[in-house]
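Proteins fold reproducibly. Consider a sample protein:
=====
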Amino acid sequence: MVRLPRRIRHSISAVWLLAVIGTPAGAAPIDPPDARALLSAAASGVQIYSCEYDANHTLGWVFRSPRATLFDTAGIAVIEHSAGPSWEARDGSRIVGHVLAQMPSETQNGVPQLLLETRSTGAKGMLSEVRYVQRTMTAGGAKPTAPCTVEHAAGSSPYIATYTFFK
């Protein structure tokens, strides 16, 4: 069983507090239609980028995939988040999602908040009935600040967020 280190738990708590206090006036949360929350988990990980040429033949960071561990309220690792985007629970249940809506992060340099619709692709278990995933309270994860000078070079940016899973 993996437990989230104390300093990360405190950092996540501080960012969540700032996110709640600093939410812009008039900003509406991204809520799924007619759904019931099953689980909310704190994520700690990285957003992975690749240095690629664009249509103007200019190098720039392009998002590739997330890699994060999600922790329950007791600080126990319960879900792994990766490319797809996908989430896999310790019991083998797995979902893959696609973005339905997004809005800016509450924090500077935070990845957007998202609402994703999902489908189950794994065994029966914790995630098999999940229809929507909501990513909120994001901090970090923006494109790397390091220069993008070598094609196909990899870069990553640490981030934290809250993922809520809905039935």
User: Anything to note?
Assistant: The beta strands are 37-53, 59-71, 77-82, 86-89, 94-103, 113-120, 132-140, 154-166. The first strand starts at residue 37 and ends at 53.
